[in-house]
Each structure stands twice: as structure tokens, then as C-alpha cells.
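Preliminary data (for renewal application), S-adenosyl-L-homocysteine complex.
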Amino acid sequence: MLKTALRFSHDLLEEIVISGDVVVDATMGNGNDTLFLAQLVEKTGHVYSFDVQEQAVINTTKRLKENSCEEQVTLLLQGHETVGNIIEKTQTIRAAIFNLGYLPKSDKTVTTHEKTTLKALRELLIRLEKKGRIILVIYDGHDEGKTEKTAVLDFVANLPQEQFSVLNYQFINQRNNPPSLICIEKKG
Ligand code: SAH
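Predicted structure:
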């Protein structure tokens, strides 16, 4: 069967992230992606993970401890748009993932926004290693999500093809707005 955007996002990360890598989870949420990345980079690598909700940090801390992965992760209770202050410009990263929108079963008013998403994306692109990937899982079932999707698509469609390959993975005949996926790969 064709993979969902979420499933495909993990495959795209797993193909390139190895032990010792530095990576970013731009939207911590319940920590699914943070844990997944922490297991890929292992103790010699590092995951920087961002969220603006304290509950995300609490849930993710617990999850990492249960899996003995807390050592290789920095959890930041601040927006991903501040990533430029956290990771030096000279520090390259192998991969980053965004899971946009709001956290299911949580406060729907706390959602990602076009401007801050693009700011984070620009900072991450500066630091992306050759052959590295930035993945965005995009939800357009809510109003802010629609605006954000348009802005993200416009931005990534205009990245220079000499430097980046950009993939848009999306089911186009389904009900209930399933998420779509963008993968930006920096050319080698
Ligand atoms: N990847 C998560 C789901 C993320 S949901 C999982 O696997 O469970 C989107 C998350 O983005 C929410 O937790 C929300 O609090 C967070 N968020 C909203 N604005 C943000 C910002 N500016 N920076 C970082 N995280 C943000």
C-alpha cells in the first residue's frame, strides 16, 4: 500500500540519518519524531527539539526516559523560529522535520504559523548538509493550515534547483484532508 505522509516522513529520515548526526525536530508535540530521531542518531549524535507548549516538553521528557534516549536530546520550550540562536551557523545538520498545525486532542489555538514556520525553515536551510533533508508534514484541514500550506509551497517551489530537490507527496482524491509532505533535499 502507498504510505501515509507520516509513515513516509520516517522512511525519508531513516534513509539518511545515522549515528552521530545532528538533527532538529521543529515541532516536538508528543515526541514521536523526537524519539525516532534520537534512536537514529544514538548517544554520539544530537536532537534539538522545539515546542511552545510546556505539556509537549513534559510528555516528551517522559517518553525519552522510558526509552533511555534523553542524553542525546535537548528539549527547548520555545518556538522553532529561534533555532538560529540555538544552533551556530557553522554547525551543520543532517535533517529536520516539521509536523505542522496543532496537537491533536490539545489546544487547537496553539498552531504553527506561516511566518514563524518560514523563518525556521530559512535558518535550517542555511545549516543543512549536502544530501541532508528537511521534511514538512502539512495539514490544511484548518484555516491557518491552508494559509500556511500556500506560503510553504510558494517558498519551496522557488528554491534554486541547482542546490535543492523539492518533492511534494500528496494524495489528491481523499476526504478529510489527509496531511501532505514536502521533502527538501540539498544536492551533493
Ligand atoms: N510531531 C508531533 C506533532 C506536532 S503537532 C508528534 O509526533 O506528536 C504541532 C506542534 O507544534 C504542537 O505541539 C504545537 O504546540 C507546536 N508549535 C506551534 N507553534 C510552534 C512554534 N512556533 N515552534 C515550535 N513548535 C510550535
